[in-house]
Structures are given as structure tokens and as C-alpha cells.
Automatic annotation (TrEMBL):
GO function term, MF aspect, one: GTP binding
Species the sequence originates in: Thalassospira alkalitolerans
Signal peptide: none
PROSITE patterns xref list: G_ENGB
Span of domain EngB-type G: 47-220
Species classification: Bacteria, Pseudomonadati, Pseudomonadota, Alphaproteobacteria, Rhodospirillales
Cofactor(s) in the UniProt record: Mg(2+)
Function text: Necessary for normal cell division and for the maintenance of normal septation.
Protein name: Probable GTP-binding protein EngB
Amino acid sequence: MTEEKLPSATAIPTFESAQIEAGRKLFSRPVTFMLGVANLEQLPPENKIEICFAGRSNVGKSSLFNAVTGRKDMARTSNTPGRTQQLNYFDLDGALNIVDLPGYGFAQAPKDIVETWQGVIKQYLRGRVTLRRVFVLIDSRHGFMKADLEMMKMLDESAVSYQIVLTKADKLKKGQMEKRIREVVEGVKKHPAALTKLFATSSEKSTGLEALRAEIAMLL
């Protein structure tokens, strides 16, 4: 599928053709599910680089994960927010661990269970030496919400490097998208651990996927 282009913005990184190709090659390699982590004792050895995807429930995280990896059902999608309640580990052909974090901000689960696995997430983010980047997904239609800002604050306090990935970019018109990008850029300036370059993506239209893959490949 040909990638649909968004209006140019200085906040969105650009990559050379060789970097785009490196990202394509990386994600053409096999991706396999490793394990689901419900407590820190289950974490795999810290023997390779990790990245993770974080976002509010129903932000489109599973859909983006599937689109980036080029698999239809690698991360289970669901219309029920907060269904995933563990850290799901995926192995990218021995080169990289990709961690799909539980959706935050809302969950169809008892409060004590929600608090337990949210505590696991916080401990993971604060203590994982091999974690190189967290990609925080924000719904383009809504921008930053309270739960997003709480997550970003925690990442700042933990000194964990992170980047914003706007999802569902196809749902906004050109002018609306440019306005949203400007708002997000201004917002991240207040967060010391946030990188200033962001990604605007659409799982349905394949927007921004090449750039996101290239960015991840560069971390290796």
C-alpha cells in the first residue's frame, strides 16, 4: 500500500531513503509473541533493546501495532477498552523486544485489579535498563487528555525518553491536523523527557508508518 502523505510540518521527522529502507527491512523480519507479564518477576532477561507502545484505552494502539509490524492480528484488537491487563512482549527476530502496554485511563475491570497492573507498569517503566523509547499514542481527534498528561508526567519523573504518536490522523482534515500538531508540539515543550519530533499516523491509510519504522530501526 502506498503511504498517504500528511501536510509537511517541522515537528514531523523526515528520513533518508536508506533509513526508510532499514525500517522496512527490520519489520519484514518475523515477529512472534513471547509472553504476557503480569508481575515483574516474569520479565525476560535484559539482553536486548526494548521499545514499548503506551496509550489510553481505545486510542488505536493494537491497530497501530498490527499496522507497523505488518501483521493483521499480532496484537489483539477489541472494542472493549482496557481488555489487555498485562505487558505483552513480542520478539522481532531476536533484534528487538516490542512491549505492548495495557491501555491506561479506563478499564472494564475491578478497581483493585486495575490498580495492581497499573502499578506493574509504573515499576517496569522506572526500572527497565534496556528500555530505549516509549511511544505514547494520542488520539488526533482529542489531543492530550488527563490520563495522557499523567503518563507523561510519570515518564518525565522516571527520565524515560518518549515520543508522541498521533493516531487516527485520517479522521481530521488538513487544517485540523496541522492545528493539532502545533498544539501537541507546544504541549511537549513542558515535558523534559519528551522528544520534540512526533509522528502522525493512520493505521487504516498507512500514514506515518514508514517514518515510525525508520525511527525504531535507528534505535538499534
